User: Fold this.
Amino acid sequence: MHCPFCRHPDSRVVDSREADEGQAIRRRRSCPQCGRRFTTVESAVLSVVKRSGVTEPFSREKVVKGVRRACQGRQVDNDSLNLLAQQVEDAVRASGSAEIPSNEVGLAILDPLRNLDEVAYLRFASVYKSFSSAEDFEQEITDMRRHAQARQSSATDANPVTVD
Assistant:
């Protein structure tokens, strides 16, 4: 690491700490040449591989922007969108790969969006899954109902009600 003050090509790490909820490492460094200290932040770069083959860094802002379009006119606040983007990033990073195909990012958006707002989910899914007919919407709604029933029955099984 070059010293930002004297451009000396070496530095010594004085202290290292986790930052950004474990997604980065903050290091305090000391330059042996000029003796000044500076801070660096290291993070693993997560890249998204587009269908065209172009690679770009993962962007939470891009996720929020795409989901915001699907949520247009719906009562969804920015905090919820930011939380969804964090959930998507966590899911994508959990794959353990440094490069992830863009379609996997889209898949990672679908489940949290379904739980956030069903109408926005249908809008997003219709574009993402390239719906071409009303039957595609009907099938997706049927799947949503099945998913909601399964989620509801698992919640009921986890919390049985006892009657005295």
